[in-house]
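>> received
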Amino acid sequence: MKKIVVSLITSLGLISLLAGCGTTKLTTTKTNYRQNGMVAVVKGTAAKQADLKYRINQERFKKVTVKGGTYVIQVPTTTNTQTVTVRAKANGKTSTKQVTIAAATAVGQYAKIANQYNQALVGMALSKADQTKAQELQKQAAAAKAGQLTATELGALKQTQQVVQDAMQQAHQTQKERLLPTTPKNGVSEWTANQHVTIRGSVDNQDVMGITLITPVNALKNKAALKDFGTSFALIAQATGADSKKVMSEFSDYTKNNKKGSQTTMKTIKSHGVKFNTGFSASHLYIYITK
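>> returned
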């Protein structure tokens, strides 16, 4: 009887050992991840020589680079829970891990955010005289719709419309490089960029899951660059439904208290459900906008 038990234990141990021989090193830091900025960041360890790949839900596997035995996978978040499968192959052995990415809340619809941002940017580029004409045009158009204008006034309205339209087209051309694209790419992409500010966004089927504004730290010391960045920041905040004055005021207070750049992050600014997180690197400042 003892021989049978010993034999059984030995066999089980051998099976366990053989099973271990059929796998390769692979870990994840968590089993459930949440949005961090525009993406969820899946991290873990794998054999240095491993052929590491991952896939989201049932999509095709994509290759991941292993550096020093560790890896990082950035997964754009969506309004639905996602499953990420990580697979490592090395020396004929295979290991897999599955993690979940929690559903995130969309900041808003891309078309609405982009249209409001672009219209405001173009409107600011108009001369004060043309801005006044544009405001008067809105009032006159409302009066015309209500049938309150004479034939002479309607003729003058058409002339004003043409003047404002020409001015808007000219302003549009001057701001062309700063405008957000009409149709965004799905996932994380760069929406617009110049020497002072870069705007990136994460889009899931027209839902904006996150926005990042990036500016060189040196821009905070240059009036023209700071104005450029501040304008983009305020307009994006406003387009997402936040109180731009409140957001900019709090941001200004934080930056004044962090002139030396001793902090790498700042307290989260919240306005109407929109969250603004600020981070610093050695060379750039980042504003992460989520809900």
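>> The first strand starts at residue 32 and ends at 33.
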